[in-house]
Amino acid sequence: MTVALTEDSSVIAVAGKKAGALLEKNKGIRTVGDLFEFVPRRYLHPGRLSDFTTLVEGEWAIVVARVAEARTRAMARNPRQQMLMAVLTDGQHRLGLTFFKAWGHTDQIVPGRVGVFAGAVSRYRGEWQLTHPEYEMLEVADLDPRDPFELVDPDGTPDPALDGALAQEWARHQVPVYSTTGTVTSLKLRRMVVTALDSVSEVREALPDEVRARRGLVGREEALRLVHRPLVEDDPGVGIDRLRYDEAFVLQTILAQRRAATEALEGTSRVARPGGVLEAFEARLPFQLTGGQLEIGALLTRELAAQRPMHRLLQGEVGSGKTIVALRAMLAVVDAGGQAALLAPTEVLAVQHHRSIRAMLGDLAEGGLLGGSTVGTRVALLTGGQPASVRRSTLNDIVTGDAGIVVGTHALIQKHVAFRDLALVVVDEQHRFGVEQRDALREKGNTPPHLLVMTATPIPRTVAMTVFGDMETSTLRELPRGRSPIVTHVVPAAVPSWLQRTWQRVAEEVARGQQAFVVCPKIGDDEAPGARAAGAGDVDGNGWDDEDWALLDAEELERQEGREDGEDPPAEAPRELVGVMQLAEQLLAEPALRGLSIGVLHGRMPTETKDAVMSAFAAGDLDVLVATTVIEVGVDVPNASVMVVMDADRFGISQLHQLRGRIGRGSAPGLCLLVTPTPPESPAGERLAAVASTTDGFELARRDLQLRREGDVLGARQSGRSSSVRFLRMGNRDDEQVISDAREDATALVAADPTLAEHPVLAARVAARLDEEQAAYLERG
């Protein structure tokens, strides 16, 4: 008897406990509804025999084939046990089948029958073979031997020789091929989905009828049938298009509600007083602001003066001058009597921001102190690595309001940090933070503060509409005058002469009076990520630092490149990566670099040590700085003209673009050398070639997104690992229109029904989506 299910029923109801646990762990499939949205990788035509020339040894394959031969024989070691040996054909080639226990298979594996066979491909005595494959036979009879390849004509018309065979389930439907996980094979998944579709009492429809009609979309129940049980003549893409729109619509509904909630808030108007610190700062600027900086600055001034909180994303190329735009906004709210907080993802970046802001302001950053300007303010720094006495003093300056600008790491979010009047929150490198983290800081205002989010990782329009869809977006494309061009080359590590030439080029740049960065993917000790207690270099208070996340992102990137449509890549021997400590020792012994001053920098160094190293490098006391990705953003050393990135294939495109943005910031042109053992024709080699071919960050960001996926677009981490979108591909230009249409429809619906009271199914989908986000966030932190 068929058991009635709902989309909320546990997947265990159709998969069983063991398979259900595997699906939840490896594929994130917890419910029947999740199973419905687990889309096949591809489809096989039941009437077209597979081409065996595409088989790859060691890979899992699923084929439609005809049994050419079948025989049994006694096992050598146990004559009473029979084994079955058969041969499949695609009409031209052969594929062996072996069952060491023939019982149960001899009545099925019969010459002339056609079936679907799945298993790992191997070689035995030079012949292709499947051992104990999973299979289902197609009830197709009377095949025309003159046409062994087609049971159905290319136009989908049934072959007359089939007679009534199309009444059979397998012969009438395309065969979906799902990505596998453990013992849960594609054929088992197909049976699970068919069982679930037959057992669910009702497929809930979250999309309003008028939206579905306007966009020309099929109903959800029909979409699921097209995706999982398409007939021979069906187009499964029509069903996938509906699921893709559903996903975009739910995400955009969440963001539309966030925008509506923000617009409903009553904020405090912040208008800079005349003759204040902002005017004094602008009068001292030694350079002319770009047109883009002036335009966006005027926009921020208007939004800060409004009675509702600003909620804006500021993006721009590396070195486009976002910090000066943000600083002017911070000084404006200080002149209006409020405070501004700048949240940075790493301690190195926070210290760099604090130092550069104080340098730009001069005595304007020493308000109330001896020698300070009478119209100035104070710029405070708060990080987790500071001594307790320094933290206590800083916390007092924050709560009393003596510190008008506060720069810090996640330490700013802690509950005991209190502001006198927090007026503006500036979040740098937004991709390192989640919604919860930036909102935790905003909650420290007496009234909802204004929010300015900055990122130097250019964002394609699809991501801006989805990840940052609750914000207005501004873009700085124009680089300030004086920025020098950067040339990038890929260096094959396997060619000793090229690597030797790399260090010679570093020496030549130093001889001209310049400095060099050398970046490594790891520190070089044997300590596993997160193995120590939270401390110096700790980004998020759980013992993980910036380099830990960078290594995990690199590992995920490798997995994504080795994966085809969700399949796990074949296991490869791990490669020993270049570490900071070992390389620094090697460079000290490198003949080309003899006599140069070489320093090291990484996230696990004590705060005072990191600060001393960066100060020495900025002052020109160090010629070469060997570092991890702690120098990825915010570090400004105009004298640095060359960068060498070791194991460059372990970094993503946008990260490499960020890294090379540390050079070429002065009068000398920049040179970036990407050292890698990876072949040029590999996916990683193509990625590095893309970085070397252009300095257009927006084009590189799109390519990076296509490789790395979107990440958890509503959660705490927004790149790489565990994508929270299943159907949308935000690096795909074709999905821009889908997201744009969904944004328009969702905005109109929320405007008419803010609480979704008239759309209970949609409200449930939104609530479930947000619950998943929160659960994922709690698991991570």
Please tag this protein with its features:
781 residues, alpha/beta, globular, seven-stranded parallel beta sheet
Fraction in beta strands: 15-25%
Q: Total strand count, please?
A: 21
Read across the widest sheet, the strand sequence of neighbours is 11-12-10-13-14-9-15
The Rg value, from CA coordinates, equals 31 Å
N→C terminal distance: 45 Å
What's the main sheet like?
A: 7 strands, parallel
How are the elements arranged and paired?
Elements (H helix, E strand, L loop, with lengths): L11 H4 L1 H11 L4 H5 L5 E3 L15 E15 L7 E8 L4 E6 L14 E11 L2 E5 L2 E5 L30 H4 L2 E3 L8 H14 L9 H7 L4 H9 L7 H29 L12 H8 L6 H14 L6 E6 L5 H14 L3 E5 L3 H15 L16 E5 L5 H13 L2 E6 L13 E7 L6 H8 L7 E6 L5 H6 L5 E5 L9 E7 L3 H16 L3 E5 L26 H16 L18 H9 L9 E4 L5 H12 L5 E4 L12 E6 L7 H8 L9 E7 L6 H11 L3 H12 L25 H19 L7 H21 L1
Helix pairs in contact: 7-8, 8-23, 8-24, 9-11, 10-11
Can you tell me about this structure?
There is one protein chain. It contains 24 helices and 21 strands. The chain is of the alpha/beta class and about 775 residues long. The strands form 4 sheets. The chain has a 7-stranded parallel β-sheet with strand order 11-12-10-13-14-9-15, with helices on both faces. Helix 8 crosses helix 23 (about 735-750), helix 8 packs across helix 24 and helix 9 packs antiparallel against helix 11 (about 320-335). Residues about 140-165, about 525-570, about 710-725 and about 775-780 have low confidence and may be disordered. The radius of gyration is 31 Å and the shape is globular. Helix 13 links the parallel strand 11 and strand 12 (about 405-410). The protein starts with 11 loop residues before the first helix and ends with a helix.
